[in-house]
Amino acid sequence: MALSTQRASAFHPSAHQSAPTQWNYDVFLSFRGVDTRNSFVSHLYYELQHRGIKTFKDDPKLERGKTISLELLKAIQESRLAIVVLSPNYASSSGCLDELTKILQCMKSNGTVLPVFYNVDPSVVRKQSSSFAGAFAEHEKRFREDIEKVKR
């Protein structure tokens, strides 16, 4: 993975201004584990860490299927930038979508969101077609009492 030194320095607070004290991570990685954990994301994480970019990547042992953990919420809030790896099964995980909602809320005021389209066309995400259409239809059935959650 090629990441130029010039670009890597953009992540370091000393390259520009001092970072606010609430930032404990330069990057928060959001991804669907079954699609990318042991391939693209593991390589990306390694390269970021290797270049001194402090990166949060969730532990595969974290409890799944529940609401977003406090540890993940805190890591999102304490990150300067979020890289969201959108893969074919990303939208099928309500946890990933909860995480994305929190990322968008936090980064709106104090950060940047960088989407990476991994084996999925950006138009599929934008138009919510293909695997994304099916995933959102399932979420609408599952959360019919809380349809606002799906809209968010």
Concise overview:
With 152 residues, this protein is α/β, with parallel strands linked by helices. The chain has eight helices and four strands; from the N terminus they run αβααβαβαβααα.
Radius of gyration: 16 Å
Annotated CATH architecture of the domain at 23-120: 3-Layer(aba) Sandwich
Arrangement of strands in the largest sheet: 2-1-3-4
CATH superfamily of the domain at 23-120: Toll/interleukin-1 receptor homology (TIR) domain
Task: Please tell me about this protein's structure.
- Residues 23-152 form the TIR domain.
- InterPro entries: TIR_dom, Toll_tir_struct_dom_sf.
- Pfam families: TIR.
- Keywords: NAD.
- This protein is an alpha/beta fold.
- Helices cover 45% and strands 14% of the residues.
- The protein has helices at residues 5-9, 33-36, 40-50, 70-77, 94-110, 122-127, 130-142, 147-151, and strands spanning 25-30, 55-56, 79-86, 112-117.
- A 4-stranded parallel β-sheet has the order 2-1-3-4, sandwiched between helices.
- β3 (79-86), α5 and β4 (112-117) form a beta-alpha-beta unit.
- The protein is globular and about 40 Å long.
- Residues 1-20 have low confidence and may be disordered.
